[in-house]
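Lab manual, section 2.4: Encoding a predicted structure.

Procedure: take the sequence of the chain (225 residues), apply the prediction step described in section 2.3, and record the output as structure tokens. A sample record is shown.
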Amino acid sequence: MKSDLFASEHLAEAATFPGMTLQNAKSVKYTVQGEMQALQGSMIAFRGNLQFEHKSQGLGGLLKRALTGEGLPLMTVRGQGEAWFAHEAQNCFIVEVEPGDALTVNGRNVLCFDASLAYEIKTVKGAGMTGGGLFNSVFTGHGKIALICEGNPVVIPVTPEAPVHVDTDAVVGWSEQLRTSLHRSQSIGSMVRGGSGEAVQLKLEGQGFVIVRPSELTPQKKSAN
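Recorded output:
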């Protein structure tokens, strides 16, 4: 059988080392030798002896998710084999977290990660109780995490001389050491008159980087009737 479908860029080759790699721009391949974590429902294929189990967030995590809508609905993957992960054809990117690093990520942008990484759902400091993405997952330790993003993300350096303001619906993640606060960019009078639609942003200060996606809102899927 012949087809462009069987070109080398589409074929899944045998694994040469454990851990995650990009299969292509829209999916991640993970060679499991023990255990890893992934977004529930994100597995699209696997081969080998693997088990998939729901991972409890604990009472604290469940309460935060119930109150904020933010959280990590995870599954644990155990065994020996290969698994492929993707989510709604979003673009995939792999970040290696090194000892001493701390990366805060919006839960909607986490696809999978090494079991060697620790994570905790935390309140974004200075953000109060308004806006979106105000409870993020902070990753620490040593290992890799695969992020998903609608479109190609923009990585913006943050320096003490040049703080960055981001839309709370567009932000993917940032260096945990950055200071955060809410910033109002228009007056109350402007808001009453209709405003620009960009009333409040998250302000990041310090030394590091912030990742934003080229989309402010996720389209709502139509519910089945």
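Check your result against the sample. The chain is about 5% helix and 50% strand.
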